[in-house]
Predict the structure.
Amino acid sequence: MEEYNDTQNLGEKIVKTLKGIYDPEIPVDIYELGLIYDVMINTDDEVKILMTLTSPNCPVAESLPREVEEKVRKVDGIKDVEVEITFDPPWSKDLMSEEAKLELGML
């Protein structure tokens, strides 16, 4: 049970970190924007983040995944981070949280 709590706490720290990273073209963090598909933490505290971009031609295609990796790597307790980009499924506005839609005036 203690291991679960540690993983859960680590997961919460990672999500908090992700909510501090913004797409420079959209004033919403990448987590609420729906760019983060999955955060996986193994028993060795190694993290894999599956994410997408708003489009394959996104101007931050090089820098945003690197920023995610660098910032998550700084979370206390993480031993390694891998960020994988996918376009399956492609990002759409439907993936945005209600909070993000409200912030962008879409509700």
Notes: The helical segments are 2-18, 63-73, 98-103. The chain has three helices and three strands.
